[in-house]
Amino acid sequence: MNPADRWSGRGRFDDLPIQLKASLASALLLIFLLALGAHAYLTSTRSAAGLRVLSGELVPKQQAFADVGNAVVATHMKIFRLVSWASNGVSDKVLMPLEGEINAELDASSERIAALTRRPDLSDDERPALQELLVKWQNCKKQARDTIDVARTDAPMATMMIGQTDDSFEAVDADLRKMSQALAAKSNTLQSQLSSDAQRNQQVVVWVTLLGLLISVVVAVVIGRSIVRPIRSITDVMQRLSAGEIDVPVDQGTRRDEIGQMALAIDVFRRNIIDKHAVERTLAESIEAITEGFSLYDAEDRLVVCNSHYREMFAYGPDTVTPGMTFERIVGAAVGRVVLDGAGDGQTWLAERIARHRNPTGPHVQHRSDGSWIRVSERLTAAGGVVATYTDITELKSREAELDRAHAQVTALNEKLRSDNLRMEGELDVTRRLQMMLLPTLQELQQVRGLDIACHMQAALEVGGDYYDVLQHEGRVKIGIGDVTGHGLESGVVMLMTQAIVRALLSSGEVDPVRFLSVLNTALYGNVQRMGSDKNLTLCLLDYADGEVKVSGQHEQVIVLRRDGTVEWVDTIDLGFPIGLESEIAEFVAQATLRLQPGDGVVLYTDGVTEAADMTGEQYGLERLAAVLQAHWAQPAEAIKQAVVSDLKRFIGAQNVYDDITLVVAKQT
Fold it and tell me: What is the mean pLDDT of residues 490-494?
C-alpha cells in the first residue's frame, strides 16, 4: 500500500477488521430492516386491534341481535298460524303441540333478550335501549300468551286480538333491526379504515425496500474493493507455495486486518515446511518404538518404511532389509531358510504369500520352523500400498494348546453325562409304563354300574404328577383325582404311592372320609420324608352309591352338570388339606353331599386343563371348559371327554404342554 494512503480515509478503512466491516454493513441494513419492521409492527398492531373489535365485538354482537330478531319473527309467525288453525276448526290434538312449542320459544326469547342486556361489550347507548326492549318484549309476550289462550276457546276473539299482538312483535323486531343496522354501519366504517391503512403500509414497504437495495449495492462495491481483491492476491501466493516456491513475496503484510494476519500465517506455513523433516524424524522414531513388526509398502510394492522388529523377522542372507526393496525380494530371501505355514514347496508358498499380500482379506498366522507363531495383519492404503503389522503370538498358541487339552477332558465328561442320561431315560420309561399300567382300563370303567365314565391323562414329561383312579368295592364307587407338585420321577413315584394307599384303604373297608384321608396322609408323609423330597399333592375323593355323591379332600372345583345343561360348582378348598405336606390333617377334612338324577354328572380335572396356554399366553380357563361341557352334555361320556380334549388341543396349538392334563367325566345313566 502507498504510505500516503496509510493516513487517508481509504487506508484507515482497509485497516479495519473484516468482521467490523461486515458488522457495519449489517448494522446499516439492520437499521432499515428495523425501521421497516417497526412500521409494519405498528401498522399490524392497529390492524389487529381493529380486527379484534370487528371480529370479536361488532360482528358477534350484530349476529346475536339478528338471531334474536329471527327467533322473534319465527315465533310471531307460529302465533299467527295457531290463530288461523283455530279459526278453521283444527282439533286440539294438533293445536296443543304447537301451543307448547310457542310457549317454549317465548320463554327462550325472553332469556336471549335478557342475555343481550348482560353482554359486557354493549355501548352506553345500547344497554338502556336493550333494557327498554326487554320491557317491550315482556308486554309482547303477555299479549301473545293471552291470544293463544283465547284461541283455543274463542277463535273469533283471538282473531281480533292478533292485530294488537302483531303491533307488539313488529315494535320489538324494529328495535332489534335498528340496533343491528347501527352495528353494521360501524363494521363498514372500521373495514374501510383497515383497507386504507393496508394500502398506505404497502407504499411504505415498497419505498423502504428500494432504498435498502440501493444501500446494499453500495456496501457490496465498497467491501469488494477492500476484501475480495486482496484475498485473490493471497490465494495466488498460497498456490505458488504449494508448487514449491519458497521465496514468494507477500505484499499484503502491511495491512492490519485479517488479510494481513493471513499473510503472516503464510510466512509461518513457509517455516513449517522447514520443520517438516524434523517431524518425519519423529515419525520414524515412533514407528521404531512399536513393539510389533511394522512395514509400509507403496503402490509398486516397494518398502517405504519399517522398524527394526520387522528387519529382524526377515533378516536372512546377505541382503539387509532397506527401503526401496520389493516385498517379493524380502520374503523370497526367507524361503529355504525357514519353513513357513508347514509348506513343503517353497515356491508355491511364496506365490501364495505374494498374492495374499497384494490382496489382503484379513489377518493370518504363520508357523515358523523355529516353533514361533506370527500373526500378520495387512491392509490396503488409500494410495494402493500395503501397511502391515507382525505380532509374535507364540505364547498365545501355547495357551490355546492347553485349552484344547481341557476341551478334550470336557468332551469326555459330556460323553459320560450322555451315558448317564440314557440310563435315567430308561428308568423314567419303566416308571412311566408302570404308571400307565395302573390306570383304570376301559373294561373296568365299563363295568361301573350306574355311571358312564370316560378318562384322559397326558403327562408334560415322561412321568407325570397327576393322579386319578376309579375303584369299585361292595357296591360303592370311589373316584379319585390329584395333582402332585412338579413333574418327573419323584412326582411319578408319589403318584404311584398314592394310588397304592388308596386301593389298600378301600380294600380294608374304610369309608369314613376323615380317617381315610388321615391314614393316607400319614403313610404318604412318612414315605416323602424318607425320600428326602418336598413333594405333596392336592387330592379329591368322590364316593358314589345310588345317585348320591360324597365329596372330600382339597383339589380344583368339582363341576356338576345337570341333565338340562345347568352348571353347579363344588368348592373343595374347605374339604381337606394338601396330602404329604403336614403329618396331621384330620382337623381340616370335611365332606359335601350332592344328589344326581339320570343324565346328571360330575367332571373332575387338574389345573393342567384350565391353565393350559396358547401362543399368546392366554389360559384355557374354567369358563371355556364349562361351556364345552354344556354344549356336548347330551352325548355319552366318551364323546364329552373327546370334545373337551379336541377343543383344548385346538386352543393350545403349537404351544408346548408345561403341565400334566387330566380329565374325568362321570355321568349317571
Answer: 84
